[in-house]
Amino acid sequence: MKKFVSSLALLALCMALAVQPVHADVAPPEAPPGSNPLPGEGTTQVAMLAETVTLTVLPDPADAQGAIAKTVASFTMRNQGTQAEQIQVRFPLSFVFWGSDKYPEIGDLVAKVNGIKVATTRQVLPYTPANPVGADCVDCPVTAHRQIEMPWAVFDVGFPPGDDVSIEVSYTVQGFGIYPYENFRYILETGAGWKDAIGSADVIVRLPYEANARNVWVEFTEGYAVTTPGFEFRGNEVRWHFENLEPTSENNIEISLLTPSMWQKILNETANVTRNPQDGEAWGRLGKAYKEAIRMPKGFLRSDTVGREMYALSRDAYERCLTLLPKDSLWHAGYADLLWSHYLFDIYYSGETDPDGVLPRLLSELRIALELDPNNQVAKNLMSEIIVGVPDVARKTDSGYDFLALTATPTPPISYETPTAAPTGTPFPSPLPVTLTVREMTQAAGENPTRESSQDSTHASTPTQPLKAPANPLCGGTAMLLPALAGALWSVRRRRG
On the chain, which terminus has fewer CB atoms closer than 10 Å, C or N? Predict the structure, then answer.
């Protein structure tokens, strides 16, 4: 324990000496999820015979990196009793998640009864969540079965006995989560307030392009949502269907999507390279887009099956780009950036070997980038990260850099385990040989000039200062501190292409 505390103290000292203060990423608050309406106080003989909820996902006009969902929820209700009922129907304008009661409200809700728009009033009324998220958190302000105040849209509906009554609510919600993923929710459990089971329920998420496992994250997610199982892809839709549903919290719908602008970028560049396979810039932009789609804010890459598939597609696109544009320094640096993310988290920190030579390949790419342009700041920043994050693979010299790992393999950190390590069973593709030089690549592709205006990654991003190895000798080589220190390094990185 003393050694552990001392290590933490040493790490804190190293970080204080080596890294400038930075602002951490702040995740946006969760948007209102949308919900089945609830009846007012008391019991009712009104049943929900059927419902269809459609969320049409579009780019957020106020945020190019975000998404919104135009939502229409239609309900067929029937009074199964013998007496007419006049009910104040409630629709929640917000919801409580993650132990907080301060979330945005739906601001444009429209309610219709039998096709006719009706007036709604906003009322703050008590609500007792049956299964609030964060209920096990003893320090959270919201705990299980605690009554809370929530804003509601309230409107009057008459239910004659034996007659069907249609209710429709429409509104817009913003996605939430961590870029490049957008998450949406819809709450079905509130439908349990009506009589008996819900006869049938369909929830449809409609995308502006074909829905598939590359733009819908189906295995696990780094954001706040996990796509609810039991769906099917149908064209540009993701669909859930239920029969005779007694809704509980387990039936609530969540979905995690690649943000539309990112997926559209992938579609556009795929179309570009299909039309012109000799367009090296388009291949580079495609590799960059796939890289952005699978890299999480802390720097590691998605390691689920589809994440690995998109990693392979990114590598292939970069390889094709550099075959066509061998003298483009920034594309070499951008490719090295992809390989560095994979090597650091999936190989080095997980204690795996590197039989495919990812480390020498990424260093070879950086060496070429710096030979082509010694002032390539993207490559220099990445070299600074490598020197600090993985000792003994490279070093800064008065004249440039020594790429030590091109002739030696570094030792992984000792006894380190990480939940982000890539699972076994799905091998990454083998890289091309690492012995290429600038002259060899130029001779292989000819002396074709390249444009300097649309190269890879971060020349369009906000510049950052390169990280430097700490000068204090106390911070020199404690292997057990490297994983935590690398987390700090990733927090100060700009987002590369």
Answer: N
